[in-house]
Structures are given as structure tokens and as C-alpha cells.
């Protein structure tokens, strides 16, 4: 296969609106049935459409300590990480923790905790503010708590680059393996910031869908009638090892990370460069890093947020770089947009697409935007042999990142 520095994905864990666990997630994204619902917590009575994790019981899944001392974005990550470790066949009580790293993407931390405690301060006074407030909302704490949980004593950090955070965490974890500093790196992304204040802010800036009458059709990537994204929560965690190490211990290899690229628009705080120069550069770097020719790409799991600008700019770049051959999907039609966690979640869906030879449909796509020349999978899953796939991510701040994965 191609060049670059091959890193094996030996374990995967998912906690999203599509379910808790990799198998329920795969079944749901392949169904094309949206997870969106109305959330009516806004103070002025205006409803928002969200995708939240169903039936998540932190006490049952993690134990009482985690349930009351950590915030939800940490809890989601820990559950996903434990699944990934089990999948990879690793027992933290048996490995050399000094050779294990943790890199997690997150942007908004414990926004819900901050809002709750700010209300306590205003209504009840300083003495009623929790002493756990700061560690509950700091973004770095998810990497810290994960390291504690899995006894990982190597480097641990959080990558905060908006909606590319999860993808960039995978790139950073791969670099730790390449450098020789670590032998195992647990990477991924997590986000749980569906708070009234955050939702109000996203709505006021025009990022969210206003299609509240039929929430299940609100997220419609690449559709001509798209009007904004559906905010979501979730976590996706992957265990990365050098491909040679994984094969030597006969570990399962779900897919291989062959290339990573990142670039910045340097254009506007929240709007993409109209020519998509950042995502084009990131994608070309990822392909070059992997030693993959654009003509070899079989599939793209696109960022595909369901906003007018993102889908048009991203779709145009995909055609410019890859042509119209690859099948394209956006799983955000089912899961919504999990912000900093999205890239990691979608990297796992991309690995599953390669493993199963099956591309999930883009939910709610009825009329492809006439300005796009893409082969977007819609209505039903598409089965086809696939060897090379790309996952793209774009974020506020002009951040862009791309991964190239191969089946083996």
C-alpha cells in the first residue's frame, strides 16, 4: 500500500446520539434515520433542534465518583475510551503506562457546569459555588481524567481547534508514535455543550437550523434547502499503534491512518475562505503525507454540516482535488454536528466504511445542490469495494484538517 507513516487503529469507542457503542452507531448511521429532536430549554421559549446521547447513565457506566465529580463531556469520553481499549485488547493494569499517551479534542469544556454555577453565584452567593467548578469546566481535564482512568503516564493533552479538534488529535497522536515517545496513544474527541447559553449564541450567529417543525429532517447536508446545522454531543475514541507493533501482537486492525494534513484559512473568525484554500491545502497535504494519488480515493466522509457555506465550499474543493469519482457521505444528517468531537467520530465511521465496504447514506438529502458535482450517497447504504478513504473537518477560526485512511 501507500507510503507515509502507517498507524493502525486497533480499538474504537463511540458515544453519540446514534447510541452507546460502535455497533449501535453503525447500525443507526446506515439506517439514515436522524437522531434529532427538539430541546425546549431556552429561556425565551424558542426551541432548538439537538442530537443528544440517549439513556446515558454515568453512574451505571462509570461508577458514582465519575457521575458526581466530572462533567458530562468527560464522562462521554471515558465511556468511549473504555470501549476502545477493550476493543484493542489492552488492559491498563498490565501495560507500561509510561509509554501510553492521551490526546483529546475538545473546545467548549464544561459549559453546562459553568452556567449552573454562575447561576448559583448570582442567586445564592459565592459560598454556594461548587469547589469543583474549575476542574469541571476546564477543557484539559478530559485528558487528565482519561489518563487517570487508564493509568497512562505518557504525554496527555487537549487539542482545541473548534470543529477540527478530534481530527487534529488523531494527527497529534500519530506524531507521538512517529517520534518514538509512545507505543500506544488513545486519541479522539468529545463535546457536550448543549447548554442554553451556547445554543443561544450559535443561533444568534446564524449557524443553527431554524427547521424546528420537523426536527428529524433539520440536518440535511448538501441538500439545496439546508439552512444550518443541528448541534450535537458525543465522543469518539481510537487506540492507535504503529502498524508493525499491532501486527506483531496480532491485534485487530480496523483501518490504517496513512496521512494527515492541516492548514488555516487566515481569512475570517467564523466564515470559510470562499475558495476553500485551507481545506484544499489540508487535503492535499494529507494525500501527499500518505503517498496517495487523488485518483485512488474511493470514499469521502465529508464535514458536511448542512450550512449553506460549508457544504458549497467543501463540496467544491472535494471535486477540485478528487474529481467526481469518490462516493461522498455526511453522517451529520443522522448524528448532528458534535463540534470538537465530530472529526474523531467521523474517523471511526470512515474506518467502518472501509471495513464493511459500505458507505452510509446522507440522511435527508432530497435535492442535491445544483452547484455541486459530487456523488453523494443518499437514501440507502451503498456497498462497494473500498481501499482508500478521506475524512475532512473544518472549524471556526479557519482551522482545517484531513485524514487519509486505508483498509489495510
TrEMBL record:
It holds the Pfam family Ketoacyl-synt_C. Residues 4-407 form the Ketosynthase family 3 (KS3) domain. The keyword Transferase applies. Keywords: Acyltransferase, Transferase. GO terms for molecular function: 3-oxoacyl-[acyl-carrier-protein] synthase activity. Coiled coil: none annotated. PROSITE patterns: KS3_1, KS3_2. One of its GO terms (biological process) is fatty acid biosynthetic process. Gene3D superfamilies: 3.40.47.10. InterPro entries: Beta-ketoacyl_synthase (IPR000794), Ketoacyl_synth_AS (IPR018201), Ketoacyl_synth_C (IPR014031), Ketoacyl_synth_N (IPR014030), PKS_Beta-ketoAc_synthase_dom (IPR020841), Thiolase-like (IPR016039). SMART domains: PKS_KS. The keyword Acyltransferase applies. NCBIfam families: PRK07314.1. Belongs to the thiolase-like superfamily. Beta-ketoacyl-ACP synthases family. This is 3-oxoacyl-[acyl-carrier-protein] synthase 2.
